[in-house]
Amino acid sequence: MNKMKKYRNVVWDYNGTIIDDAKLAVDAENVVLKSYGKSPITLDYYLKECEMPILNFYNKIFDMEKYDFSEIARRFVENYDLLFETAGVFPEVKSMIELLGKKGYRQGVISGFESSRLVSSLEKFKLDGYFEFMSGADDIACGDKSRRAAAVCEKCDFLPNETLFVGDMYHDFETARCVGADCVLIAKGHQGAEVLRSYDVNVLDSAQELKTILL
User: How far apart are CA 45 and CA 150, in angstroms?
Assistant: First the structure.
């Protein structure tokens, strides 16, 4: 990535990038696994094996020819929502979003989170006012968000060569690549640093490091 490049726009992922919810996701997942008579997973396992679309992750745990993915997803969301009060925004990310807003950056959110849940949680954390768009999914399946990202960036005139995507998973890099934009990944979310650094991707330890790229 060219550090001298002039970005005007930042597109954020949500889960694991803005909000600190990886441990919460594991706790919710273990309730689901118990309901199917399966052994619990550890956070370590999750950070190594989780990937998007989320069906890829479930294929590692279930024989998905024998189980209903929509029912697994429903149970997960139900338990995730019960635990959501324990989730919070990464303080350094909130500070960065606020700082970029003051500096005149245009910002948006592209998430696999279902749309109404995305907007309501951003409102809860008082971050919704910083974003020109908050694009969530039409369902709870946490599928591929690449095409949706390309469409919303084009609609909002986020030019690819002026846009930086910030995420926590390799799929965020794939999404940025679909748009034609650059991407950095922060190793504090749903995929561990070792996994992220196995790809040819710019990986940061903290959102604070964005200052060297954007400011």
Answer: 32
Task: Report the phi/psi class of residue 150: left, alpha or beta, with left for phi > 0 and alpha for psi in -120 to 50.
Answer: alpha
5-30 pLDDT, tens digit per residue, is 789 999 999 999 999 999 999 999 99
CB neighbours (10 Å) of residue 126?
10
Which neighbouring-strand residues pair with 164? 10, 182
Write the single-letter amino acid at 37: G
DSSP 8-state secondary structure symbol assigned to residue 147 = H
Phi, psi of 41 (to 5 degrees): -110, 160
57-93, pLDDT tens digit by residue? Answer: 999 999 999 999 999 999 999 999 999 999 999 999 9
- At the topology level, CATH places domain 9-20+87-214 in Rossmann fold (3.40.50)
Residue boundaries of the structural domains of the chain: 9-20+87-214, 22-86
% of the chain exceeding 90 in pLDDT? 87
